[in-house]
Amino acid sequence: MTLTREKEQGSAIIIAILVILVLTLVGVAAALFMNIEDKLSSNDMLSQEAFYAAQAGLHQGEQIVTNYLAAGSLNVALANVNQHNQEPQSLSDLSGIDRLGTVLLDQGTAGTPLYQVSPQGFVPQGSERVYYTLYLRNNTNDYASTDGTDYQIDHDGVVNLISLGAVIDTNGRVLYTRILSEQFNYGLKVPPPSQIGLNQGGTGSS
Question: How is residue 192 annotated by DSSP?
């Protein structure tokens, strides 16, 4: 009789341990799932903020290019020397997202570089900072062999306006970026804005 009770008690202890183990695993899995959901939600918010910044920058750039630039002044704008420039080093750079071009000035060929500009009227939902930077870059079909290693010489009056929207944290770390591009022909808009990059240079924080 005593032996039977001991067996029953031993079995009960094993079952209890298994139940606790299963409940623990369920709890850990639920916590991980909630953490993943939070990160996805946070990344979605950062993506929207970066897109808004890029879109605001593109609208600002449209006005500047339309008001200040014409075919005759594109080379002046493209040749602007600025420490924040990402000048193309090869023909492939004219269509990539690694080197976006010359930082656009707020008066086209003069004024202040539009580098890390905070969109007006936009307040981020968190403590992060949102900004845009505007670039001008020559189009891929415009390069001539006589240009040598200079890929920013305009021949056809066509230029690409590129807006980089970014979200950074309080430590200056890039959390998310979005890139929008629009092509201008002698100051006239040709195609609608098109997204050429997503989440370049930053990921969701861990």
Answer: P
Rounded to whole angstroms, the Cα distance separating 178 from 35 reads: 24
Strand 174-185 vs strand 188-189: parallel, antiparallel, or unpaired?
A: antiparallel
**pTM metric for this prediction:** 0.74
- Could you tell me which of 104, 100, 101, 112 has the C-alpha nearest to residue 64? 104
In this structure, is the dihedral angle defined by the CA atoms of residues 123, 126, 129 and 135, taken in order, positive or negative? negative
Q: Which class for 150: exposed (0-12), middle (13-18), buried (19 or more C-beta within 10 A)? A: middle
Classify 146 as helix, strand or coil: helix
Question: With b meaning 16 or more CB within 10 Å and e meaning fewer, what string describes 161-200?
Answer: bbbbbbbbeeeeeebbbbbbbbbbeebeeeeebeebbebb
Q: What is the pLDDT of residues 153-187, one digit of tens each?
A: 998 889 999 999 999 998 889 999 999 999 988 74
Structure tokens at 119: 């969109």
What are the Cα distances from residue 46, in Å, to 140, 147, 175? 31, 40, 7
Task: For residue 144, give the DSSP letter.
Answer: -
Helices (H), ranges, 90-198? none
Contacts of 49 (CB under 8 A, 6+ apart): 124, 125, 128, 130, 165, 167, 176
